[in-house]
């Protein structure tokens, strides 16, 4: 089932294609949707994942004829003959089928991961704080948070069009590039409420440790440091781990990290199973000419061996975080809490919390997240920003 969204059609109804039959509906289909990038199963996300341009929602010959007009206000069903719309949605459906064949089982993971993005709601903006920060900074990201008459900013439209699926902002508030000290422009819709951050702890290294050992301590870096018997501090272990994850050589790590021995670096590699993972990914690339994430997302830009681990870990972590946030939201709904998800920042979720819901939310976060096929992930809860006295 596929639909052309009412948003794109300039109509109060969406056009559905079900079993090759075209019909009008008051809502989008429970399937892939064209013309609504906020939808959980937006075809834009599908085509971004395979690095292809999605099919046009409106036939090009009609958009050309209306060039210069505000297309969002054009009632296309009154302009385009019914049979033309029917043929067009069938052609979109065919293109979607081709994309689904390329992605295989990962298409299901992608749709599930996007659930949290489809459930985000507007965030209230403190206009006084926004004007104050704009007066002190020339950051263009601030301008993207301009609120409407209801003091709310737009929900961002996220894009998956990166080499690993790591999110970027396609349209709307540029939360991913907003400086942390500028987050004070984000205000709660609740009296006495708080904008809080739910954050995965050491996400990408934890993914690798769980894939290797099926269990991971709360503080990975401290655990490694203890195992090394003082051969490297926690700070050195953390820096060496991140450098190894992103393809640095042992020699460069010894230079950058300081007094850390080649033996200690090898033990860090063993802790995260990096040698075995490199061999596995190299074999996969040799056989198929491409590697995939743990969930099956194609990673076509990882064509050199030093990119294999970083692309694999980052892409796998993208779906862990999005799926994990969806799991937390389920618990929030079950507990009937006044907690509103507003923004995703890679491995963090910003939520607007009623004061009466804060303690229970803290309990939910403390429980962590269990991801089927990987294991238990630690998450933390903290204010989205600190006031001046706390910085």
Describe this structure in words.
By secondary structure, the protein is α+β, with helices and mostly antiparallel strands. The mean pLDDT is 94. It is built from 17 helices and 16 strands. It folds into three domains: 2-103, no CATH class; 121-202 and 316-390, Alpha-Beta Plaits (2-Layer Sandwich), CATH 3.30.70; 206-290, no CATH class. It has helices at 6-9, 43-49, 60-65, 76-79, 82-103, 106-113, 115-118, 127-136, 140-143, 203-213, 220-227, 234-245, 250-257, 262-271, 274-288, 305-334, 358-367, and strands at residues 2-4, 14-18, 21-25, 32-34, 124-125, 157-159, 168-171, 186-187, 194-200, 291-292, 298-299, 339-345, 348-353, 369-371, 375-377, 379-383. A hairpin with a 2-residue loop joins strand 12 and strand 13. Helix 12 (234-245) packs antiparallel against helix 13.
Task: Summarize this entry quickly.
With 391 residues, the chain is α+β, with helices and mostly antiparallel strands.
Task: Using the alpha-carbon principal axes, give the shape.
Answer: globular
CATH class of the largest domain: Alpha Beta
Tally of separate domains: 3
The count of DSSP E runs of length 2 or more, i.e. the number of strands, is 16
* H/I helix tally: 17
Question: Low-confidence parts, pLDDT < 50 over ≥5 residues?
Answer: none
CATH topology of the largest domain: Alpha-Beta Plaits
CATH architecture of the largest domain: 2-Layer Sandwich
* Radius of gyration computed on alpha carbons: 23 Å
Range of helix content:
40-55%
Strand neighbour order, sheet with most strands: 3-2-1-4
Cα end-to-end separation: 51 Å
**Main β-sheet: number of strands, strand sense, barrel status?**
4 strands, mixed
The overall pLDDT, averaged over residues, is 94
């Amino acid at each position: 089932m596929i639909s052309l969204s009412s948003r794109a059609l300039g109509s109060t109804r969406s056009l559905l294609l079900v079993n090759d039959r075209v019909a009008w509906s008051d809502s989008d289909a429970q399937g892939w949707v064209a013309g609504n990038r906020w939808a959980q199963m937006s075809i834009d996300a599908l085509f971004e994942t395979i690095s292809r341009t999605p099919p046009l929602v409106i036939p090009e010959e009609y958009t050309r004829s209306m060039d210069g007009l505000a297309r969002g206000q054009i009632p296309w069903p009154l302009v385009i003959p019914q049979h033309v719309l029917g043929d067009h949605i069938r052609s979109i459906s065919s293109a979607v089928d081709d994309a689904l064949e390329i992605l295989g089982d990962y298409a299901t993971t992608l749709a599930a991961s996007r659930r949290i993005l489809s459930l985000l709601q507007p965030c209230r903006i403190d206009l006084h704080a926004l004007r104050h920060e704009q007066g002190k900074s020339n950051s263009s990201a601030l301008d993207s948070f301009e609120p409407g008459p209801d003091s709310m900013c737009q929900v961002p439209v996220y894009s998956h069009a990166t080499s690993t699926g790591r999110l970027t902002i396609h349209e709307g508030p540029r939360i991913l590039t907003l400086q942390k000290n500028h987050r004070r422009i984000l205000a709660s819709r609740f009296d006495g409420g708080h904008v809080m951050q739910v954050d995965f702890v050491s996400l990408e290294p934890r993914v690798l440790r769980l894939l290797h050992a099926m269990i991971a301590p709360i503080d990975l870096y401290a655990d490694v440091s203890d195992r090394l018997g003082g051969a490297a501090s926690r700070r050195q272990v953390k820096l060496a781990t991140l450098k190894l994850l992103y393809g640095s050589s042992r020699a460069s790590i010894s230079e950058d990290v300081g007094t850390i021995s080649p033996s200690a670096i090898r033990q860090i590699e063993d802790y995260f199973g990096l040698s075995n993972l490199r061999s596995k990914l190299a074999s996969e690339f040799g056989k198929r000419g491409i590697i995939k994430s743990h969930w099956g997302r194609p990673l076509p830009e990882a064509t050199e061996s030093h990119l294999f681990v970083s692309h694999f870990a980052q892409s796998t972590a993208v779906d862990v975080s999005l799926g994990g946030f969806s799991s937390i939201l389920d618990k929030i709904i079950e507990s009937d809490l006044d907690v509103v998800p507003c923004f995703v920042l890679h491995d963090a979720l910003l939520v607007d919390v009623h004061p009466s819901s804060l303690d229970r939310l803290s309990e939910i976060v403390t429980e962590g997240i269990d991801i089927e096929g990987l294991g238990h992930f630690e998450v933390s809860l903290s204010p989205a920003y600190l006031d001046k006295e706390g910085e």
